[in-house]
Amino acid sequence: MGNSYAGQLKTTRFEEVLHNSIEASLRSNTLVPRPIFSQLYLEAEQQLSSLEGSSRVDNEEEEEEGDGGLEPSSLSNAYQLPPPPEGCCTTDGFCQAGKDLRLVSISNEPIEVPAGFLLVGAKSPSLPDHLLVCAVDKRFLPDDNGHNALLGFSGNCVGCGKKGFCYFTEFSNHINLKLTTQPKKQKHLKYYLIRNAQGALTKGPLICWKGSEFRSRQNSANTCSSSLFPLLEGSGSLAAFPSDPVPGTNSIVPVRAQQAGPASDHPSLTTVTGPAVFNGKDSPKHPQLVKNNLSALPRPSALGILPNSGPPKKRHKGWSPESPSAADGGFPQGGGNRAKHEGSGMSCIPQAGLVGSTSVTIPVVASGEPVSVPDNLLKICKAKPVIFKGHGNFPYLCGNLNDVVVSPLLYTCYQNSQSLSRAYEQHGASTVQPISQEMQLLLTVYYLVQLAADQVPLMEDLEQILLRSWRESHLTEIRQYQQAPPQPFPPAPSTAAPVTSAQLPWLAGLAASSCNDSVHVIECAYSLAEGLSEMFRLLIEGKLAKTNYVVIICACRNAAIDSCIAVTGKYQARILSESLLSPMEYQREVHYELVTGKVDSLGAFFSSLCPEGDIDILLDKFHQENQGHVSSSLTASSIKKTAMLDAGGVPVCASYHLEPRGVRPFQLAVAQKLLSHVCSIADSSTQNLDLGSFEKVDFLICIPPSEVTYQQTVFHVWHSGVLLELGLEKEPVTKQRVEQHVLKLDVEAQARFKAFLQNSFQNPHTLFILIHDHAHWDLVSSAVHNIYSQSDPSVGLVDRLLNCREVKEAPNIVTLHVTSFPYALQTQHTLISPYNEIHWPISYSNGVDLYHENKKYFGLAEFIDSTLSGHSLPLLRYDSSFEAMVTALGKRFPRLHSAVIRTFVLVQHYAAAMMAVSGLPQMKNHTSVETLEITQNLLNSPKQCPCGHGLMVLLRVPCSPLAAVAYERLAHVRARLALEEHFEIILGNPSSGITVGKHFVKQLKMWQKIEDAEWRPQTYLELEGLPCILIFSGMDPHGESLPRSLRYCDLRLINSSCLVRTALEQELGLAAYFVSDDIPLEKGTKNEALESDGEKLSSTDEDEEAGTEGCFEAGSTSEKRSPVKRERSRSHDSASSSRSSKASGSVLYGESLVQPLGPPQGELARSPPPCGPSEEGRTPGEMQRLRVSQGSTVISRNSPGLAPQPDCSLRTNRRSLQVPATPSSQLSSSGSSSTCAVPTANMLVLQASQCSMAKACRQPPVVFLPKLVYDMLLSTDSSGLPKAASLLPSPSVMWTSSFRPLLSKTMTSTEQSLYYRQWTVPRSSHMDYGNRAEGRVDSFHPRRLLLSGPPQIGKTGAYLQFLSILSRMLIRLTEVDVYDEEEINISLQEESDWHYLQLTDPWPDLELFQKMPFDYIIHDPKYEDASLICSHHQSIKSEDRGMSRKPEDLYMRRQTARMRLSKFAAYNTYHHCEQCHQYMGFHPHYQLYESTLHAFAFSYSMLGEEIQLHFIIPKSKEHHFVFSQPGGQLESMRLPLVTDKSYEHIKSPTFTPTTGRHEHGLFNLYHAMDGASHLHVLVVKEYEMAIYKKYWPNHIMLVLPSIFNSAGVGAAHFLIKELCYHNLELERSRQEELGIKPQDIWPFIVISDDSCVMWNAVDVDCAGEQSREFSWSERNISLKHIMQHIEASPNITHYALIGMRKWASKTQSSEVREPFSRCHVHDFIILNVDLTQNVQYNQNRFTCDDVDFNLRVHSAGLLLCRFNRFSVMKKQIAVGGHRSFHITSKQVSDSSVVIVPSQYICAPDSKHTFLAAPAQLLLEKFLQYHSHRFFPLSLKNHSHPVLSVDCYLNLGPQISVCYVSSRPHSLNISCSDMAFSGLLLYLCDSFVGASFLKKFHFLKGATLCVICQDRNSLRQTVVRLELEDEWQFRLRDEFQTANAKEDRPLFFLTGRHI
Asked: Distance from CA of residue 1136 to its chain's centroid?
């Protein structure tokens, strides 16, 4: 439809506008049509329509790739398909009547075409490979010039014959195009259809829609590369989008047009402040608004798109005619943040779709006449010139547009460099001017002039030059703004004279004059059109043969310049034009050339080169001559093999061995880092991961769809044992079970992934780790899938699966992305928090080896290092003769893609080399030295090994069709040469497995000792030792690991024109290797140290020529090298360095000693040195060392290659042997002309037969690269890093601005990640594109981790190890350390006549029990350091119970056992499971439970005052209490009846005193009680109330009065008991009114420690009631079960105290044999508050208060019963409890001084340091450690204990005590025959009288200690008890605790018995 009227009014134009206006008014109810004549002012409209992108540049390939792209209009206005009529056909390719319309189906059928109609082919987005046949009225199609197409449509359906479709929308629905965009004929009617000679309908010429005369169409595949979106996506917010769908390859996404201002998304658009941006459909209604904002719009993204000179499209109405022109509107310096995106690769590469079309783009504003592109331009020039639009206007092109390419890259680069950094703009740096257009152009000329003939311009380089120039010119201002605040009048800009437009052509010509015509400058007077015409003329005349770049300048127009730069150099133009192809289009182009036979001319050319005739004829001749016997040169071997034989007579090779599996230190370190990151997620306050709720770990590993990678991963998982360790499988684990945990991301993945999600949903207590390995592989957004779902279901699969809502929301799924190239996951929109990145650690830090490993990783940085060493051949090389031939053929065959040429040349070289080695020496002239070296070593290596082990050659052919051609050709040559059994050729395709010939499978099985008849190698690792060429195809490697026998990595065919950092590193990662760490340093490829440094980008040496590019493998660094080694090896042209290479192995194999090569084309002849592989030039000493180092090891039966593969925990090391050899036969690498020196023949003496495996294990493979890549790796930029580091990191991202710093050499991996996070954004096809919250924490997914590390370094092993230690940690989280100590003092147990012999009684029989004696001895192991309690029964056997322990050791040294938490455990605050959420009162989305504070007062006469306690009662627990009215006064706590029987209710309220354990106390009894209803009260101190309430909002708190803040546990026990007795009386009186007897109210309470974690029951099996033989077992049960059992005991109210055993693993059967004991009970007691009404806890006590209380209860004649068949486990809790009491000095200055127990007491009135601790605590601690000072006679004198009256105080383990009660009628032991060594009177009351004491006998010299509250009562006590009668006192024997007077110290007096 579009015509290019250069401004004239034409009649056709008038008709179109009229037609358009009428049609618009007919179709629209609301829109007022624009006045017809205002539409005819073409100039304004041209600008606007170009802004709208109305002149779309479409071409065939775009549509094939991207028809489905959504409009750039806002998504809400996306085109909606009308629903199809009911019952009609909706199948793609058929019309709604069900008739087939596909060209392939109906090409031979007769089709009726009405007069005036033409058959055309329509493209459907859902059928990209088909054309649909339509009949269209030719009036609505354009003529040959693209003119005169009427608006509208008229067409017929050729399928069903339906006629008269008047609207293309209606027609597109009928033929089922299923569009997501507004249907347009221009977009979907693509080709005329014509009949061929056979009468079949075929695809004809492209329909020349408007603008297509300005496009070149490249034969079959044109170009929008994978980054084609780049430009369009990058400018997602700009209005200048084509309004047609965006074509793309594997990435199409709706582009958002309407945003509030582009600057928000693109920081570099600094001056763009305009409001919303519009696009056709959403055009503003107010012309004025448009007018004002147009100038704010950035430049159109498709720069150079032709302005809309034809009639406007239907949807583009409403633009104001007076809107300013885009050219004059002065675009801001924004718009340009796209230079990088577009050139996402190398060279100026108009990469990826900068524009809609890849070939020619059309100018924004055109002026003057069009420029005609001459016919035969490509034929004459041998390359398509690439024209870069520069500044100003660009003329139209017409004519032979197929032969030129136009790109806007340079324009966007210029725009970018003019956008000031936001940093300076914030300072108000208005005077810091952008770099001028003249200067930009001049700098560009300087840059082009200095490029070498074989270099390609790189947009990154130019950007840096412009940036540097700008910075230098404004250095002073920049510094000023950095240092000072902005001034009102900033200083004037630099006064250096700027370049004027008049000077520019002269200066540019001057600069170009020095470059020998490489750059030619054309100056134009009026417009660029003159210059372009002049250039085309010069090209046709051949006058630019030596010129690579033509710079055209037009500097006449009002001081503004127009410019463009044409790349005319054949090499550069070819690379730049090919770089536009996306991977898909590249493959399609190659396929097209192969299918159409275009490559046949190459074969003919090769035949003509061979003077001996066609190679195939030679091969056939050779085959006939040698039929039946193998090539003589191969059979003849001068080496006698002295092979070792194994027992069976089979030869054994010493070099072939499998190394032991294991986890390397690095892998363990990484696994631990992963674990700590997971823990930190769990520890954060966000509650995103509750590790405590998980019981086990499960996992799924997602990998790319490569069969080899799949098998490799399955093998690693299988042999790592991780499934057994995680408890997911039992022995033996089958491969099928392993495969359940590895998911290949192919079409079938969805169903399995759904099952995984279902599994995770059904198992909330399993933590699922979703491992996304090779995570950089498929980052396409699922939005693209929505467009392409029918054509390719795998598009966007990773996004659909791993980023689905279920995965994001599942609280038990943690996603771990694992990759060697994390850059595309490190953008401004990433989902991964920078804190959740784990980088492979560095191995060296300041020269210290952090992780000692006997293998060192050899990655890209080390390969680059090898080129710096002068002592050996570099491992990175290029092949100059190959490159020269490719370049020459490129000129001869300009229409063939260079990948085709390179592949054919290389295959030809390999074929010729095979022939040369096989006995056709004349063929050496037809191969390169490098290829000959590879082939010789490949064929000769098996001859050197007794077993026939050989080496692997990796031949990387990314393009699958070419790989197939290479395979067929090489296999054919091999067959003709009868070499089928000498080496294998394997075609490695990601989609299929490995096929290996039977002969070689047999060999592999023999070497690996495999007996399985069905075995076939499934991974490349299993090809260890197999001599083979592996042709590795596929556009990207998918993580396949290669065996140690890999010797050559031939990457000469990688797609060097389309470089991004990920692609480059990925290819070079194939060669990554582990080498032994014991290489002698003076030789070999290793410099001082080879370390993989994950944190450093490279060495920090300033003067290093090409620093190690460690950033390539997440960093790698080299230690300082000695200066000698620093020079780069001149292996390309130095004869001496190539002494070690040999061009042919003829010497070794019995051929003549020196066999010179025929000179390769244009190169000097090279002579092979007569030395053996890899031992050349070694001293005999070295040789000896070499032989010694080869230990004999034998391979194990498992596949050998899997051990070496470093990417798994199975292998510790890759190489155990390392010899300092340069690679055998490595010829001078990549040499330009170099000759080989021939060393003396005596070196042959050193040669020994050696397996190639031994050599392979000693050094990494040799890598051959394309020259372009080689130069990029070895040239450094200003940061000291290889240029490759500054490339765009991934095709799916783009730079936010060219105004960015370079990566730095010293950056750590973390800093590098932050760099990419700041400077890159995802393209709209990237799965992170929609994650818009840039950099905000809430945009990160909390359970997502990223592990990055260099390729092949062992990441698989690391994450499998992580799974193991995570599982162990979860088990550890479900485990607790419980005290596990045997009962003490068992030997002292009384031998009584009374035992409870009813072994099977479930409950104690009251009568029997009352007859049992009380056991005074303490058996609880926690009282090991306590004083023994004497009774008359015991016979003390041991006089010494052992030395006391230091107080600080007491806690540390107690024995514990680790126990798995059962389902009946008590938990602390860290446990959150769904069942107890309500119990805990926690829910992240709700407020904490409401609770109320209630006072509860009662009087207690002993304290002499009323006690006021406070209850905090949550609303949910109020039903346990009685209130005077709802919300009123608390009256009592409800108590049940003794007769109540409920199985879901625990009758006894539980009280847990606690301090300092708000987090760690085990107060969650929900599971312990098995969900039963119970009343649980936490007893806390007042100052801790708030913190306990915060952690336990749904628990009842009993808050002690503030006077007890410093009290011990005795006070809590005392108050609990008194409160409960008072409550019992209240309940009795309350319920008495209800007719219930007082004795029926339940009198028991439970007092439990806060560390009771689990409860157990012993099941006893007795043979008979009296039998001594019985068996028993212990099991974990719920507390509910125990409580209900005990509460059901008959006569239970007769027992005062009930308890249970403390658990111990070594419990003796004697301890559980008797079901009940009458003894002390501790830790968990059931207390009868009624019976014990008159027995109190001592409220002053801190320690042993339970023992003291037990003795009081027993002496009161009450029963204590211990259920021996129940036990309680106590958890070791390291905080709180009795440890929360610290004894420190009261003076602040002395607070750090350590106080020892001897300082706890002092003489009264002394100047002793007072202590800040309760007096009672000081007393108890002093007596525990220093009581021997008071009772010297008692020390170790157990037969004469200390008499302790009415109390038990711990006097230490070496002193025994005898407890007596002074209460009348109390039970005491008989003391009549006992003489005591001391008397202890502690706060004795009136029951103790003089007569009472006189009953006891004391030894002479026995000591007395009287303890009272003050000195006065001390004297009164002495007088009252008449102590002076029998005891002698001295003044100095009076003491006090070391308290200040206000702290009420205790006083004591000591005396001696007279």
From this structure: 47
